[in-house]
Please model this.
Amino acid sequence: MIVEILWKKIVKKMNKFKTLAILIVPLVGLIAIASVFVYDPVQINVKPTNPSIKFQAPPPSYPMSLQRTSRSAICYTDFEQMPSGWSNIGGNWSISPNEGYKGNALYGKDNDGGIGHASQYYWQTSISNYNSLWVSVKVKLATTNHDVYKGIALIDSNKTQLYEISIYNGELYIWGYSDKLGWNQFNNFSISNYNVNNWYILVVNYVYASSGISISAYVYDTSGALVASTSATIKGRYLFQPSYVGLEIDDVTNNLSGSGVYFDDFIISTTDPRYVNFLNVPQGYKIEVWDNLGNLINSTISTGDNVQLYILSDIVVGTGSGGSIIIGSNAGKYTLNYTVPSTDSILGGDTYTLTSGVLSFSFGANKTSINVSAAISGNTYNITGFILLSIINTDSSSCYAILFLNNMTGNMGSLNANIALYNSTYTSSNYIQISNGAILSNSTGWVSIPLNGYVNATFSGFFTQSSQQATLYLQLGYCMMPNNQGACVFYPVQITVNS
Model:
């Protein structure tokens, strides 16, 4: 009872402050509830990782186009057929099929009907305006029963005098003949390891002045090795200025029983025809000359802008038409392939000038996309090649890459191109192929990217005309397993080419 009376008094007193009580009581309850859910602070750090496959900068410079800028040959023939503008002074002359160093050969047989009772076959155009020339020809005996003098004749304007530079019985000779004075030997030199069955290359250079004529003669085997050389300076009564150049045979046997002679690769040049010259070729680039039969004539590595390539073994390259020149990286992965038209030739003394291109490119975020711009050839003779992109694998294991061509815009109709993938040991057998704007194949094959290894994509192509532009939209895919197996990621690639 006492407790009840006390509680009533307390309640009555609190009724005076009922509003305050209502506010305080819930607050006390809320504090009690919240205290149950108090935690220590939690800290989270987010650290992005770089992609394991990234684009690398491709080589910025590449060989774009090649052009012949000078020719020093004023006459040349490979004797695939009887050349026009030639005539004979004595002798019997004809084409012998498949008897040449390559292809056909000119066959000659002496009949004592020419100057000095020898026989000549000469180019009818006068060379009297030249005080110095180079002449070269390949010679070989048709049979080996009796050797004959065989070589080059420098003939005067009246066709009564000549200088004969010839090979006979293992010797290199320089002779002079005048219808008034007869024959005179000016010099000779032994040919190393002479073999009557072999082809030999005869190279002659003369320099004429009113005081005398200097003649230098060289003999090489077909490997290009020098096997004999001699020279003479001629003055006095045997001196004349050459007006015609031709071939010479002189059979000195009593009954003309000596062998006939095969001739091939004839050239008259204002400069040394033993070399082809190349200008503006960067150091480290490889230069190759190929004939129209698919044979490599010679190659060299550039040591600077101007290069001489020794092609003595085939001065009139191949069978005298076509051929190709390849210039590019020593590894051979980005190259320029210049095809000589079948109506033209690669000749000793020619000069070619290289035009290089400069690749421009930009990467997207984290180097997972790339835009590339490049100039390429605007004619069918030059096929421009360069490394389009390079990717490196920094993952913990190897993976596999492939390129897809999704779309093209621009002047597609005149574009011809191949795009391939390769690593350090393998080039994809399949490649993206575009022919006159038509997509014949829209993907490369799969190529593995070893751990810390790389894969490059090469572009090789041309427009059939100048002032063209096309943009190609590609995707580079890489997967943990080939053939789209496992996790795969695709990176955008855009390339714009113009001529």
The first strand starts at residue 53 and ends at 56. Helices lie at 2-15, 18-34. Residues 90 and 113 are 4 Å apart (CA to CA). The radius of gyration is 41 Å.
